[in-house]
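User: Structure with beta-D-glucopyranose, tokens only please.
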Amino acid sequence: MHDDHELVRLVGKLDLRAKVRLLAGGSVWRTCAEPSIGLRALTFSDGPAGVRGPGWDERRTSLAVPSPTALGATWDEDLVHRLGALLAAESRRKGVDVLLAPVLNLHRTPYGGRHFECFAEDPLLTARLGVAYVQGVQSGGVAAAPKHFVANETETDRLTHDVRVSERTLRELYLAPFEAVVEAGAWAVMSAYNGVNGHPMSENPLLTGVLKEEWGFDGVVVSDWGAVRTTVESASSGQDLSMPGPWGPWGDLLVAAVEAGEVAESAIDDKVLRLLRLAARVGALESGAEREEFAPAVNDAALLREAVSASTVLLRNNGILPLHPGRTIALIGPGAAAPRVQGGGSSGLYPSAENSLLDALTSRAEVVHAPGVRINDEPTPVRAPVQVRVLGQNDEVLFEERRLTGRILETEEVPGARVLEISTTLHVTETGPWRLAVAGYGRLTLDVDGTRVLDVVQPVDTDDPAVKHLRPPHHEVEVHLEKTQVELVARRELGEDSGMASLLAADPPTPNADQEFGAAIEAASRSDVAIVVVSTTDAIEGEGRDRTTLSLPGEQDALVTAVCLANPNTVVVVNSGGPVLLPWRDDTAAVLLTWFPGQEGGHGLADVLFGEREPGGRLPTTWPVRESDVPVANFLPDNQKLEYDEGLDIGYRAWAAHDVEPAYWFGHGLGYTTWDYLGARAERGAVRVRLRNTGRRRGREVVQVYLSREDSTTPRPRRWLGGFASVVADAGETVEVLVEIPPQATRHWENGWVTESGGFTVHIGPNAGATRIRLAARHVLRPR
Ligand code: BGC
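Assistant:
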């Protein structure tokens, strides 16, 4: 291992040009190597719900872990740590040194497009799970890069909007989880695209003043992809590494700026030192050798399955769950056979396996499956093997390969490439009007058996990498096809800046909607139990845009209402990354949230339905009854400015301040047993709670402690989470749990951290809206 002295010596061996070269990417996912000092290139990958690896290729699959909201719902640091260690093993298997995760932004509003990528609406829960994630990943010798520092809660104008937020709100809410992971030893941090109080985060004074100087962060500040847009301002700030590269405003421009005295060379030296320190930590500075492969040490499927039950939230249950064996089941809804295992955007990956609830239930019960409605109006990439060809100026073939899907995000980069062609033989399974589509930037054409059916030009209309390289606009055409097979050829003319993504998609004629709906209701009325799986889509919960509504897409609400009427034993499973409205919830027998559950979603959920495991999840975010109740709804920048004028009141704090009852409070979730809270005692820096399992089976309870301060000299939220701990007990057993209240829970920011003298009122219960035991304010929670 290299100490800092040795690293400083290595920095001294490089001239200015060599040093600056190291500070920008060598490519999209890698930094530059410097063999003269034994440094190999570092490889980065997204995160956070798995390790995609460098690049997008469906032939290189990854373990799909439950979405961060699901991990937020576990309230279980040990489990998140174990998943972090699994992600480290995945990273090493894929040659990845730095995992761009976890996301520590908060659920400021349910409309945030990347809400599913964040753990929770509460900074303490986010901090504790963030620390567990970071330490889990880094225990495997892989760096975590918690992101996006800071106040990156909105996707609209995400590259440019400026968040206006008070120092106190920043400190107590948005910076708090980052402070915790820095204290826990994070080796990297990603700065955000947005600005805060007038400065883009890639050149914001918070990077040096708070992150590095105040908190003592000694790792690398890596930019979000393409976020560095200046030379002098960003390089003079605490921004260390500009990704991707080698293009971008550093490089030669930065060398010139240093030579002109506009950027101090000492600033460059500090950035290089940090990069070498990171390289040493992940083993990239040892011999210049590539990272060796290393097989995952944990049983992945079992752990991923455990994570599903641990994160599944049971919102209500009239006693129907767990299901008795031997009952016939109507399995309904678009997500029953085609679940959404992950959200959309840069966190996306190609899962190495996948199981649906339909797969998992057929081996356990007599099941009739009827989707009832369809929701995905995005074109479906062709799945047959496709031929991809890169053509030159005269249509000569420069490169060709066989791929497994019509969604091609990356292929070989070949000099002189003019056209990317995707072709396939489509087996026409049904005669009728097929919907064929192509997507990408540039001129797009589509030929069916040699006849041109589409010819359009899609101009580049965005700088956003998540749109340009992942989800460019599509163009479609309806073509009548006879039941045989046809040759499809899609071509995209490649331009200077036309992005990486190309698509060839084909959707068969859609069945009659009324008949499909009717078949589902019929199945429900003939079965003992109906299970309806409702979902959102990638277009709703993804990167680069915010949500416009919290309602479920399509006719899913009507479907649930009709199924509940047809069968009183209806269980609804909600397969979404974040809150959706549940207008029918009182008509159901039970409602479960499964989030985006990752690749073991089907089996994990079946374990819960049949009672082999308890639903372990507790809400990491409050669920509204209706949109007009949502307390923080100003999530759209106005003229590029976004005011966080609600201050400290987000999430349950805001619901409490507005005196509005949500559908389900932060922290809510039922298990399969019941609990009595028997008593509690405040101790130095902790609260000791005694409770009894009053049900008929062993279970786990998440005991939550909220604080309030009625006589405060400073304005405060009505209540806030001070600590939590989980406890497991057998039926009839009485147990005690110690809930630690860290000093951070009782301090507030007033030009510095201050702890008000006197006592805090303690509210103990199973969620933010239910107090079972209250300890009066005379109980002083002095730090231990
Ligand atoms: C996202 C980051 C991601 C990066 C690389 C950006 O658009 O905001 O979260 O890590 O792309 O894919």
